[in-house]
């Protein structure tokens, strides 16, 4: 079950972190993985490791999104799976946040997602088959965190987009779903230091941080043919982080 043999998958933001974890799991499931990333050096390295391919991709550039999808279909003949994972998460308090700060996060996280999904739907509609998996977050749709109001807004916006978009393409054999990670041990999180990581672990009932591959396994399921009857939905992957009513509940 959940094999992806013979399928072509484009993973945006696949050079690092969660994107790399998703790409790795899809590869293990048999997919030909194309890494789409603005970081050419790292992206090409991951592609080599997975026996896949690389396309240089800036999701904020609509023309580049179309070119990247065209390159995938020209090289490999089809595009079955899009994992729209590119995202940024700079912190800024409301008092300090500028309009440019806000626009940058929305441009990458929300508009960038729209642009790559829109481009990918063209070959998927022609095939009458496709799986789109969006990397959202628990932050915004479910929880909040000081300094991330612009990030939270972008992640909540992704889910609003997903539900309506899923309705538009359902008749074409295409599903659009999302994964919602909690605290995942990526390079960015590790850079915060052990004290910060300890705080993050304490907030999770399992007292463990997720791995990029944990998110990849959820994405792999949603990308599979077995998930054909699931669309416009989201899966929270957070070790139970959103469950406690208070910190005391974790200690019980």
Automatic annotation (TrEMBL):
Its EC number is 1.1.1.100. The keyword Chloroplast does not apply. Keywords: Oxidoreductase. InterPro entries: NAD(P)-bd_dom_sf, SDR_fam. The keyword Oxidoreductase applies. One of its GO terms (molecular function) is 3-oxoacyl-[acyl-carrier-protein] reductase (NADPH) activity. It comes from the Bacteria. Gene3D superfamilies: NAD(P)-binding Rossmann-like Domain (3.40.50.720). Belongs to the short-chain dehydrogenases/reductases (SDR) family. PANTHER family: DEHYDROGENASES, SHORT CHAIN, OXIDOREDUCTASE UCPA. This is 3-oxoacyl-ACP reductase FabG.
């Amino acid at each position: 079950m959940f094999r992806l043999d013979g399928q072509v998958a484009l993973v945006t933001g696949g050079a690092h972190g969660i994107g790399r974890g998703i790409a790795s799991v899809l590869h293990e499931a048999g997919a030909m993985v194309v890494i789409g990333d603005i970081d050419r050096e790292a992206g090409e390295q991951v592609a080599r490791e997975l026996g896949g391919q690389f396309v240089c991709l800036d999701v904020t550039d609509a023309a580049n999104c179309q070119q990247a999808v065209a390159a995938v279909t020209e090289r490999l003949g089809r595009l079955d799976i899009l994992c729209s994972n590119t995202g940024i998460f700079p912190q800024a308090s409301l008092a300090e946040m500028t309009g440019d700060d806000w626009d940058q996060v929305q441009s990458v996280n929300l508009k960038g997602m729209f642009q790559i999904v829109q481009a990918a739907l063209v070959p998927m509609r022609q095939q009458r088959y496709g799986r789109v998996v969006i990397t959202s977050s628990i932050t915004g749709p479910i929880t909040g965190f000081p300094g991330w109001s612009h990030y939270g807004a972008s992640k909540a916006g992704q889910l609003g987009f997903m539900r309506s978009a899923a309705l538009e393409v359902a008749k074409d054999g295409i599903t659009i779903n999302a994964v919602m990670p909690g605290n995942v041990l990526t390079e960015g999180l590790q850079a915060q230091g052990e004290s910060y990581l300890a705080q993050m672990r304490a907030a999770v009932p399992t007292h463990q941080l997720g791995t990029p591959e944990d998110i990849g396994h959820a994405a792999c399921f949603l990308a599979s043919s077995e998930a054909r009857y699931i669309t416009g939905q989201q899966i929270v992957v957070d070790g139970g982080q959103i469950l406690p009513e208070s910190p005391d509940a974790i200690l019980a």
